[in-house]
Write a structure and sequence with these properties.
- Helices cover about 25% and strands about 20% of the residues.
- With about 190 residues, it is α/β, with parallel strands linked by helices.
- The chain has two domains: about 60 residues, no CATH class; about 110 residues, UDP N-Acetylglucosamine Acyltransferase, domain 1 (3 Solenoid).
- β14 and β15 form a beta hairpin.
Length: about 190
């Protein structure tokens, strides 16, 4: 990943946490928010050269990596937001879209091959388990405690064990500070 692109990913993550991309907010968030420190280490590890080295150093000292199992090789879009600091487990083969919220006790896994693909502007509630190679559309809300074993279409709200779509009214409304829309990877 180019370093300029890595910085853009970091700014988008910061925006999701604070609603701002100022240097002052970045420093304040880094010092006060352990989940944002985890984001910095994760994104730096995805960089090149000095940034990758710094990412490895920050990763080594990150306490959050014990609670948030999110491998640097996982494809993660702009503006990832992790609520309440985990614990979260994500299979490295998962693909996470832009402006996605992951709540505490979320598991995205696979026993056989590829894990889930999650669309943009998606809110995943607490205690959600997403199993195997399912496709979750964009602008989706998955309610607390859902077990997702089948695809969820765009603009849906799904709940239950096993998750079923209950409506298409105002999904994705819980994604906080989701106005980051500069998803271009051209730097």
């Amino acid at each position: 990943m180019k370093n300029k692109l890595m910085k853009k990913y970091l700014r988008s993550d910061l925006y999701r946490y604070t609603g701002s991309t100022s240097t002052k907010k970045a420093i304040k968030s880094y010092l006060r928010n352990p989940v944002y420190r985890f984001h910095v280490a994760l994104r730096f590890r995805q960089g090149e050269g000095f940034y990758k080295f710094m990412g490895l150093v920050l990763w080594a000292f990150s306490k959050e990596k014990r609670k948030i199992q999110l491998h640097p090789s996982t494809k993660i879009g702009f503006g990832l937001y992790i609520g309440h600091g985990g614990p979260i487990v994500v299979n490295p083969t998962a693909v996470i879209g832009n402006n996605v919220n992951l709540s505490q006790f979320t598991t995205i896994g696979s026993n056989k091959g590829h894990a889930a693909t999650i669309g943009d502007f998606t809110y995943i509630g607490p205690n959600v388990c997403i199993v195997e190679d399912v496709k979750i559309g964009s602008n989706v809300t998955i309610g607390a405690g859902a077990v997702v074993t089948k695809d969820i279409p765009d603009n849906a709200t799904a709940v239950g064990n096993y998750a079923k779509v209950i409506n298409y009214n105002n999904p994705g409304r819980y994604t906080k500070n989701n106005r980051w829309t500069d998803f271009s990877e051209d730097v």
